[in-house]
Amino acid sequence: MCTIAAPRSWLAHRVSPAPPTAEIQATAAALPRSFDWRNINGINFVSPVRNQGACGSCYAFSSMGMIESRLRVQTNNTLRVQLSPQDVVSCSQLSQGCAGGFPFLVAGKYAKDFGAVEEQCNPYVGGGGTCTRRHTCLKHYTASYRYVGGYYGACNEELMRLALVKGGPISVSFEVYPDFRHYKSGIYHHTGLGEFRPFEIVNHAVLLVGYGVNETTGEKYWIVKNSWGEGWGEDGFFRIRRGTDEVGIESIAVHATPIP
């Protein structure tokens, strides 16, 4: 897990996800009922699940995972690279190493200005330490980046679905409570263990890869890739209730456009 918190001045009030316009609602209504980038006509566009270990580097895994998967989408799965979260943890001045960071700055500004290097250039060691990036390593850049909705606080379910389907997996953040740590399978609902402080306080970043509907109950859900290894949850993924801003997951979403 890692810490991602908004500036102190923003903590005085809660800002809910922005209501969708009629135009956005109509556009989103035309999207598929369910969608999963792990299986588009039998092809998986999502890079493999990894394990961040004891380092609070979720923001780096979420950000690098988004760029990896979006490169696959843009190149019809011909460019299948594994990028280095360690490079972000050790080398980026825009984050706090194993103490946390912001996907917006990592997937966006860091990758745009400095480039993301591949795993073999700076292998993950699960800790901070000295930056060992080699200047000769191949770098992958982003052309643009932004919050879903265009600005912080403009996000909502419909815009997230549109960004996901049209561009590829997106980075999302939410609040992890004790009950989530015990997740095994199914659609996650926060049980009320711990104080709920949505939107302004989130402590974990993950990768949104799809959405669906339980055909028996009609309950909507997101499909999300975690960074706690394949042995956790549903082979490293989890499903979480959609359309209710469950533990803040529909409040802060980021997408970037990598350059193939």
UniProtKB/TrEMBL annotation:
Domain of life: Eukaryota
The keyword Hydrolase is annotated on this UniProt entry: yes
UniProt record, GO biological process: proteolysis
SUPFAM superfamilies assigned to the protein according to its UniProt record, in alphabetical order: Cysteine proteinases
InterPro entries reported for this sequence: Papain-like_cys_pep_sf, Pept_asp_AS, Pept_cys_AS, Pept_his_AS, Peptidase_C1A, Peptidase_C1A_C
PANTHER family: CYSTEINE PROTEASE FAMILY C1-RELATED (PTHR12411)
Family: Belongs to the peptidase C1 family.
Name of this protein: Peptidase C1A papain C-terminal domain-containing protein
Species this chain originates from: Coptotermes formosanus (Formosan subterranean termite)
